[in-house]
Amino acid sequence: MTSTVPALGTLTAEGSALQAVLLDMDGTLVDTEGFWWDVETEVFASLGHTLDDAWRHIVVGGPMTRSAGFLIEATGADIGLDELTVRLNDAFESRIDHALPLMPGAARLLAELAEHDIPTALVSASHRRIIDRVLPVLGPEYFALSVAGDEVPRTKPHPDPYLAAAAGLGADPARCAVVEDTVTGVTAAEAAGCQVVAVPSVGPITPAVRRTVVPSLDVVDLPFLRGLMTDLR
User: Fold this and answer.
1) Angle, CA 152 vertex, CA 84 and CA 4 arms, to 5°
2) Which helix (H) or strand (E) holds 84?
3) Block means of pLDDT (10 residues each) for the chain, length 233 residues?
4) How many alpha carbons lie under 13 Å from residue 5 in its C-beta half-sphere?
5) Exposed, middle or buried: residue 58 (CB in 10 Å: 0-12, 13-18, 19+)?
6) Which of 75, 110, 133, 227 has the highest local Cβ count within 10 Å?
7) In what order do the strands lie in the sheet with 120-123?
């Protein structure tokens, strides 16, 4: 799955202001946020360092460069950022080769969006190599495009990934619904001007203007997402 597609024009769902749905990957569609922490813990253990569990909330949901850089600084590990990034991605790929569980409600939601021809994008802080390993499990046919963290000038918590996805779908960011699981991702989506559905995976997320917090994807369906756009009709 490539990261860009030709502009499709403004794609409006009939009878709704909803133009597109933009979905985070780790912790939102696939149950992998814990995988990343396990991998980071294992890699740093091999370097002779123990990670403080309190750091998990700092590194979750962010770009590899930020989380890996923080852990190098916090532990004082003798390893460069580039080498650590490769080791973490290698270990993560090995982990998902053995198991890659979907989050509850993910498969049903993707199928529903496809059934109603809702333009959908996968927007992740993970690198392209990781996205391309996960897409076959999610179903690449469900996504018009995907945006990886190493394909934009600035990744989450900056708005660039969501702005790129909206532009690729020819959609107004204000008429896009974003589904995220971390504060980092929510921050990126809100900075892009999107409506946000937060499904917290690790740390708490509080409701706010243009932000709805739900316990799981089981309660998110197309009528729910269209309802977020009521004020934009």
Assistant:
1) 120
2) helix 81-98
3) 39 65 95 83 93 84 79 92 90 82 96 98 93 93 96 94 98 97 95 97 90 97 94 61
4) 18
5) middle
6) 110
7) 145-147, 120-123, 20-23, 176-180, 195-198, 211-213
